[in-house]
Design goal:
Mean pLDDT: 95
Oligomer: single chain
Largest sheet: 7 strands, parallel
Number of helices: 8
CATH architecture: 3-Layer(aba) Sandwich
Low-confidence stretches: none
CATH topology: Rossmann fold
Strand order of the largest sheet: 3-2-1-4-5-6-7
């Protein structure tokens, strides 16, 4: 049986983050998390009062330092950190302005780097820990109009591999998951458009898009004792999109 863990989740109110929080909490783990929206945090807390919530901006290093300190004091330790923070921008490079580019890098990649620094500072003292990040199928294969998000998410994968090597002597594991399009509020601009949704489904051999629980289930395994020999890896969950020959267009 998996040992009970103290888990901190960044972006806990998002589609993937909330699914991960609910699953891990149901498995008996102690779960804390942070996000920017106080209203969304209040709603999550009212539904799951056993989950400890904190309000913070993931791109603000001062906020993050306070969050990690508070989570450690509340739970006693941080055994697992899950970084479910990111953005979606679908534009070709020539239509992406400097502000959009920097915002995408900041939210997708810089926030992960800042959180990683805070997490390992705590986990090194215990000589154990597990960190899980999220990349994207767009970072694994070429998908049109995804230059900014592809670049920022590919940085996550490189960050995970390097950190896995750096902190292996401290028994701290780093892994990431690269989802395809997932049915979350963040993806609503795509999923709420019937034509765009149908095109996205047809891109997948399974003729579907991912559900948040699909990603949460793999996250829970990576956080568990069953994955204690897994580090430096990126697991793709995209219905076979990146691993199979594209289907002929109808």
């Amino acid at each position: 049986m998996d040992t009970q863990k103290n888990i901190l989740i960044g972006g806990i109110t998002g589609g993937i983050g909330s699914s991960v929080a609910k699953l891990l909490s149901s498995q008996g783990h102690t779960v804390s998390g942070y996000a920017r929206s106080e209203d969304q945090l209040t709603a999550l807390k009212s539904e799951h009062p056993n989950i400890h919530t904190l309000c913070a901006n993931a791109t603000d290093t001062t906020d993050l330092a306070k969050v990690f300190k508070s989570a450690q004091e509340t739970m006693g330790s941080i055994d697992v950190y899950v970084h479910a923070i990111g953005s979606i921008i679908i534009k070709p490079a020539h239509l992406t302005n400097q502000t959009q580019w920097l915002d995408t890098l900041n939210l997708n990649l810089s926030s992960a780097f800042y959180a990683l620094k805070e997490a390992v500072a705590i986990m090194q003292k215990e000589s154990s820990g597990s960190l899980i990040f999220y990349s994207s199928t767009a970072a694994r294969i070429g998908i049109p109009n995804h230059e900014a998000i592809a670049a920022s998410k590919a940085g996550i994968e490189a960050l995970v591999r390097s950190a896995a090597a750096t902190y292996s002597n401290r028994n701290i594991r780093f892994n990431c998951i690269a989802p395809g399009l997932t049915d979350t509020n963040l993806a609503k601009p795509i999923t709420s458009n019937p034509q765009a949704l149908e095109i996205s489904k047809k891109m997948s051999p399974l003729n579907a898009i991912a559900q948040p629980d699909d990603i949460a289930n793999l996250t829970a395994w990576l956080a568990s004792d069953s994955a204690q020999f897994v580090t430096g890896q990126c697991f793709t969950v995209d219905g076979g999109l990146s691993a199979t020959v594209p289907k002929p267009r109808a």
